[in-house]
Amino acid sequence: MTKLHCISLPTPFPVGPVNVYLAEGEPLTLIDTGPKTEATRAALSQELARLGHNLADLKQIILTHHHVDHLGLAGEIAAQSYAKIFAHPYNLPWLHDYASTRKHHAQFYRGFWKQNGVPQELIERMLYLGEALTQFRDSHLPVQPLPEGREIHFAGCDWSVYHTPGHAGGLICLWHAQSRTLISNDHILKNISSNPILEPPMSGEATRPQRLRDYLREMNRMAELNPQIAYTGHGEAVRNVRELVARRVAFHHRRADAILSALGARTMSLWELTQELFPALTNDADFFLAISEVQGHLDLLQNDQRIVETFHGEKVLWKRPT
Ligand SMILES: [Zn+2]
């Protein structure tokens, strides 16, 4: 394998810096780009220059998922370098037409949150957050699909693409079997469990995907590969992937148990449970993540038949089965 450089770039988001990866050799490849900000652009150019390259030399950009902290600079880099951009097909609506995809998601969130008891003012504020992210990315990216099963060449070798939904529906991991190297990006992070962000039903489907269940299944699938290292989207690389995944899975089962005991004998909405589980939240972005997190655990509990969904008019409530 030729050199794979981890480059940490600043972002304006609470998550802190994001990691992108420069793979030397042919084709010169960048995995993720960071958001579209002046500081990120300057840091990326500087790091590339230090390694003896510049943005215009890039031939290939692989985007790990559609979140803005990972891809905002892709459009302008591709415009300078004529690099081809690849991403899992699930991301294509986001990347080809951001404005209408965001509108579709906003419509879903508005209805879902309302049905689950979230106060109207908070709904409006959380929707505004989504709007505010628009400035950090381009609306139309010329992206080519990179589905699971495909191999892609960079860093002097062929990498297998794994589709690992959970944190995001279109997230991919890249795997080099010979060196047992995984580029896990936000799927496996060293210090935090990624949020299983709520997403609307996929096109042609009637029900919402259950992203925490996807996340746990796909973490186990990556652990089964037994990577000797996983390069992450934020923070340090992970060397003990199997052990970390076992800990993460156990953590989520414990959190599901905690939600079940908070529910007790009551009948409660997602919003009421979120407030009980996370009483100290004040920031709208944290509310957004906490609601996704609790819904993910309600999905686990429902799937294990430990809770049932019940309706009060339009409103969704949860209780233990009788
Ligand atoms: Zn992400």
Integer count of domains: 2
Distance between the termini: 58 Å
The CATH homologous superfamily name of the largest domain equals Ribonuclease Z/Hydroxyacylglutathione hydrolase-like
CATH architecture label of the largest domain = 4-Layer Sandwich
Strand content: 15-25%
Task: Using the alpha-carbon principal axes, give the shape.
Answer: globular
- The percent of residues in helical segments reads 25-40%
Average pLDDT metric: 96
Task: Please report the first level of CATH classification, the CATH class of the largest domain.
Answer: Alpha Beta
H and E order: EEEHEHHEHHHEEEEEHEHHHEE
What would the keywords be for this entry?
322 residues, alpha/beta, Metallo-beta-lactamase, Chain A, six-stranded mixed β-sheet, five-stranded mixed β-sheet, 13 strands, globular, binds zinc ion
Fold and architecture overview:
The chain is of the alpha/beta class and 322 residues long. The protein has helices spanning 38-50, 68-71, 74-81, 92-96, 98-115, 120-132, 211-224, 241-263, 270-277, 284-303, and strands at residues 4-9, 18-23, 29-31, 60-62, 84-87, 143-145, 151-154, 157-163, 172-176, 181-185, 229-232, 308-312, 315-319. The strands form three sheets. A six-stranded mixed sheet has the order 1-2-3-4-5-6. Strands 7-8-9-10-11 form a five-stranded mixed sheet, with no helix packed on it. The longest helix is centred in the C-terminal third of the chain and has 23 residues, at 241-263. It is globular. It starts with a strand and ends with a strand. It binds zinc ion. Residues 65, 67, 167-168, 186 line the site of zinc ion. Zinc ion binds next to loops.
